[in-house]
């Protein structure tokens, strides 16, 4: 989750988010270099002691300032396109979960288990226990096995929502009548927080998302317990 006074992005918990962090740093260095060059040119132009400051024509400069931006754009575009294709790649997921946005809570259906589904509401402030986060904790977390490719089918029941978990590098619109899909693989166990990222009404800020990644054995124990409760 984010921390007070945090300047950078959240720590990556999936391979896609790691790639996004690398791309962010790569692009930021290019921005710094361009800004430094432009600042130097401005300072040199206003502080020069040359009397003739008017350049009417220079083929060499025009060639440079045409080719150089094209090269910079290519250096940014190629890794960007690579990450876009990586984010769309879904290879033989081990588990499929359907996330449905409502006003104002999320529902989860585990497609591989017929009766495993539940609603996930924000935990009210007065019900929080020690260590839980206000406006971020839910009464039921979306539990997933770690180091397993997970496919999430995302839709909405009423208005536009968006299912977003920054640490996993996921942000996908939930559109009524339409199924969008995203995938992630958690590289470590943990609890990862997100929120609805599409303004959906009065309680838009009160429908958090909590993904809990656990070892496979622990996930199987949890799913068995949930199925037993559903059958009662």
Automatic annotation (TrEMBL):
Tree of life domain: Eukaryota
The keyword Electron transport appears for this protein: yes
GO biological process, alphabetically ordered: ATP synthesis coupled electron transport
Domain Cytochrome oxidase subunit II copper A binding: 92-225
Pfam families registered for this protein in UniProt: COX2, COX2_TM
CDD domains in alphabetical order: CcO_II_C
Ranges annotated as spanning the membrane: 27-51, 63-85
Cofactor notes: Binds a copper A center.
Molecular-function GO terms, alphabetical: copper ion binding; cytochrome-c oxidase activity; oxidoreductase activity
Catalysed reactions, as listed in the record: 4 Fe(II)-[cytochrome c] + O2 + 8 H(+)(in) = 4 Fe(III)-[cytochrome c] + 2 H2O + 4 H(+)(out)
Main location: mitochondrion
Annotated ranges, domain Cytochrome oxidase subunit II transmembrane region profile: 1-91
Membrane topology: Multi-pass membrane protein
Cofactor: Cu cation
Subcellular location: Mitochondrion inner membrane
NCBIfam families (alphabetical): CoxB
Family the UniProt entry places it in: Belongs to the cytochrome c oxidase subunit 2 family.
Protein's name according to its UniProt entry: Cytochrome c oxidase subunit 2
Organism, as annotated: Lepidosiren paradoxus (South American lungfish)
Gene: COX2
């Amino acid at each position: 989750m984010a921390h007070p006074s945090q300047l950078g992005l959240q720590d990556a918990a999936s391979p896609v988010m790691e790639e996004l962090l690398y791309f962010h740093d790569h692009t930021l260095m290019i921005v710094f270099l361009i800004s430094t060059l432009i600042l130097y040119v401005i300072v040199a132009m206003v502080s020069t002691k040359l009397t003739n400051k008017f350049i009417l024509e220079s083929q060499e400069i025009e060639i440079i300032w045409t080719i150089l931006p094209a090269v910079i754009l290519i250096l940014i575009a190629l890794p960007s396109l690579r990450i876009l294709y990586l984010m769309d790649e879904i290879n033989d997921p081990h588990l499929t979960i359907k996330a449905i946005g409502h006003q104002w809570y999320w529902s989860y259906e585990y497609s591989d288990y017929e009766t495993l589904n539940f609603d996930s509401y924000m935990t009210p402030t007065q019900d929080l226990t020690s260590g839980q986060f206000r406006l971020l904790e839910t009464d039921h977390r979306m539990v997933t096995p770690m180091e397993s490719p997970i496919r999430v089918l995302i839709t909405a029941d009423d208005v536009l929502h968006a299912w977003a978990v920054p640490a996993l590098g996921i942000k996908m619109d939930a559109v009524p009548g339409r199924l969008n899909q995203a995938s992630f693989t958690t590289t470590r166990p943990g609890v990862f927080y997100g929120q609805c990222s599409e303004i959906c009404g009065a309680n838009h800020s009160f429908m958090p998302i909590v993904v809990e990644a656990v070892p496979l054995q622990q996930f199987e124990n949890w799913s068995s317990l949930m199925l037993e409760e559903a059958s009662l």
